[in-house]
Amino acid sequence: MSDPENPRFAKGDKTRRAILGDRFVDRAEAALTPLDTTFRELTTEAVWGTVWASDGLDLREKSLVTVALLAGAGQNEELGLHIHVARKNGATREDLMEVFLHVAAYAGVPRANQAIRVAKSVWAEMDKAEQG
Q1: Which residues are CB-neighbours of 103 under 8 A, at least 6 positions away?
Q2: Could you tell me the residue ranges of all domains in the chain?
Q3: By C-alpha distance, which of 45, 50, 61 is closest to 9?
Q4: Which residues of 24-57 are buried (b: 16+ CB within 10 A; e: fewer)?
Q5: What is the largest CA-CA distance in the chain?
Q6: What count of Cα atoms within 13 Å lies in the side-chain half-sphere of residue 107?
Q7: Cβ distance 86 to 64 under 8 Å?
Q8: What is the pLDDT of residues 9-48, one digit of tens each?
Q9: What CATH number was assigned to the domain covering residues 59-131?
Q10: Please, which pLDDT band fits residue 3 given cuts at 50, 70 and 90?
Q11: How far apart are CA 58 and CA 2, in angstroms?
């Protein structure tokens, strides 16, 4: 079980909730089992409490880097989530298309093509949600 007194975990949980939203985090927490609790603690402390909570880049820049890395690695499920996050953090669709050009140049056209398909699907969902 996570230690709520652990300052890095607490900072990570706060950052994670601010970026992903309480609803998303609460759903993920409800799905935890004893087998993946330690993994969640690691990611909350390291990814959210250290990387995303750092002051080195602003949230928009972190989102663009994250989208590029996920797209380049072909991690399309996580990519969809982080396209939502990128918008929340101020990245435009045009920003993301520029990122995908870099992905094409450095990770390959097929990966960029997949990422663009994911982005178009996410953007269609966003547009539909905004319209109605």
Answers
A1: 68, 71, 72, 111, 112, 115
A2: 7-51, 59-131
A3: 45
A4: ebeeeeeeeeeeeeeebbeebbeebbebbbeeee
A5: 46
A6: 20
A7: yes
A8: 999 999 999 999 999 999 999 999 999 999 999 999 999 9
A9: 1.20.1290.10
A10: low
A11: 28
Residues 111-132 pLDDT 10s = 999 999 999 999 999 999 999 7
Residue 1's pLDDT band (cuts 50, 70, 90)? very low
Chain CA centroid to CA 15, Å: 12
Read off the amino acid at residue 84.
H
User: What is the full DSSP assignment across the chain?
Assistant: ---TT-HHHHHHHHHHHHHH-HHHHHHHHHT--TTTHHHHHHHIIIIIIIITT-SSS-HHHHHHHHHHHHHHHT-HHHHHHHHHHHHHTT--HHHHHHHHHHHHHHH-HHHHHHHHHHHHHHHHHHHHHHH-
The token duo for 109 is 């056209």
